[in-house]
Design brief:
By secondary structure, the chain is of the alpha/beta class. It is built from 15 helices and twelve strands.
Length: 497
């Protein structure tokens, strides 16, 4: 029995095709930010708006409908060639009007951003005799070993459509899967395929979601018709350096600064993982505070869920956002908190060498591989087999207070949106900045105590961090050790629980 993919919790609206306005430089800012810092350790200034968002789009926040209120932006259906022509025309008009060197730089970056991103495009199919198979790819010499098991997740035969984010070596991938009933005894009544791409950065993959969804439907209806994929690859392929070391040409260094400062507040997209933070927090409820602590401690977090996978990949990204820090120099010596997205048994050897990550899987066997993870999340159930971490799964008084404040702030925002027509602020801003400010508050206080004549953490200083002196004592000790504050003394009052 084939079930329909459940994307409703995240994708509440139908995508209405419309032409997307070119000339936005914010995707470049997000791409540059991704190269300079992970989502869990943004190096932007504390005053920046929504740093560390990773997946990002154009400037200006949510697009607006005719009445001026926020509405879900539509995915562009304009052919690639027309987009490029419109982009060039728009850029030329802007340059002739302003003559600004800064605009010229940004426009060049937008043009670069549109082109040099995709390192591979591929089609994966399910064969009733051989299982998952790589059917077609460009370039032909690309190492795609194992991608057939990432692009079609274990258990995907139960859903009709899905999308999957994953990692393949040093690249990130997005694949769109579809399952179509057919009257064929050879195919046993069902044809399953997935069309995917690889890129050096996950921040822009969502831009091609609509294209991939359309292409996988075409592959199901007319198998073997690859010309649109060939044209897409030729238009979007990345420029690899002559050394052939697999490192993709980055945005020109002299353009990074302008890109990062241009717009720290990206536009939300329906298929944009940053747009799912509110659903993520509503799904976990108070448990979000447990995940926040574990993410800040750079623990290995594995999330299990049956298909569809796309929703769970978004939860992986949101977990990374919980650990955002914008204070310069903080966390440089700790393991990078990296999103692996979807993983399967073929990734076991890679995960064995990771000190810190967050990933998701549909394979229940991972629960038995207790040496691969520190924390296992099954639905809303967060558990660990490590005795030293078990106390962290209990909510402290401060955790409940923080969650209460977060809930109150959300209610005030919703009231403001309803009563005053506030279309600028969003729940995503609220949630992202709430945890960013909380993290900055902790490390700001730790820095002040470390630089004082008496470097001792007292109940007052712990409360200043927004923590519970007794209930968060173990969390604080882990934090001091991981982030290199082990020279700080801990007041005896904190040792009495």
């Amino acid at each position: 029995m084939v079930e329909r993919s459940d994307r409703a919790p995240l994708l509440d609206w139908e995508e209405v095709p419309s032409a997307e306005k070119p000339g936005a430089a914010a995707p470049v800012a997000a791409h540059a930010k991704d190269r300079l810092a992970s989502p869990s350790n943004s190096r932007s200034s504390p005053g920046g708006s929504a740093p560390g968002l990773g997946w990002s789009s154009g400037p200006g926040g949510p697009s607006r409908s005719a009445d001026g209120c926020g509405a879900p932006p539509a995915t562009s259906s304009t052919p690639t060639g027309q987009q490029d022509e419109a982009l060039q025309s728009d850029n030329e008009d802007r340059l002739s009007d302003s003559g600004s060197m800064e605009l010229s730089l940004e426009d060049r970056m937008v043009k670069w951003e549109e082109k040099d991103q995709i390192v591979s495009v591929f089609v994966v199919t399910f064969n009733t005799r051989s299982g998952n198979m790589l059917e077609w790819c460009l370039p032909k010499d690309m190492d795609l070993d194992g991608v057939e098991f990432k692009a079609i997740a274990s258990g995907s035969h139960r859903v009709t459509t899905d999308f999957i984010y994953f990692r393949k070596g040093s690249y990130f991938g997005l694949a769109c899967f579809a399952n179509m009933a057919v009257e064929s005894a050879v195919e046993r009544g069902a044809r399953m395929k997935s069309v995917g791409i690889l890129s050096p950065s996950y921040t822009l993959l969502y831009r091609y979601m609509s294209f991939l969804e359309h292409q996988v439907r075409l592959q199901l209806q007319t198998p073997g018709h690859y010309s649109p994929l060939e044209a897409f690859y030729e238009d979007k392929r990345a420029l690899l350096p002559p050394s052939g070391d697999g490192v993709v040409t980055a945005c020109p260094a002299n353009a990074w600064g302008a890109a990062i400062n241009h717009c720290m507040h990206p536009e939300m997209k329906i298929t944009h993982p940053a747009g799912c933070m509110s659903q993520f927090i509503r799904f976990f409820g108070e448990q979000i505070m447990v995940l926040w602590k574990l993410a800040l401690l750079r623990r290995r977090i594995l999330i299990f869920s049956p298909p569809p996978v796309g929703v769970v990949c978004y939860r992986v990204y949101c977990c990374c956002c919980l650990a955002n820090i914008s204070l310069p120099g903080i966390g440089e010596a700790v393991p990078e908190f990296r999103p692996f997205f979807y993983v399967n048994v073929a990734d076991i050897s890679a995960l064995e060498n990771e000190l810190s990550y967050v990933a998701c899987t549909t394979e229940k066997i991972f629960e038995e591989k207790k040496d691969l993870y520190d924390v296992y999340v099954d639905n809303q159930n967060v558990k660990t087999y490590r005795d030293g971490l078990k106390p962290l799964l209990r909510l402290s008084t401060a955790d409940r207070e923080k969650y209460r404040k977060l809930t109150e702030q959300r209610q005030m925002l919703l009231y403001s949106q309803e009563e005053n027509g506030d279309c600028v602020s969003s729940e995503e801003d609220l949630f992202i900045l709430f945890f960013l400010e909380q993290n900055n508050r902790i490390f700001q206080t730790l820095g002040e105590v470390a630089g004082s004549p008496d470097p001792t953490l007292t109940q007052e200083s712990v409360r200043a961090m927004g923590l519970d002196p007794h209930g968060d004592r173990l969390f604080l000790l882990h934090l001091l050790e991981i982030y290199g504050y082990d020279t700080l003394l801990v007041s005896e009052q904190l040792c009495c629980s």
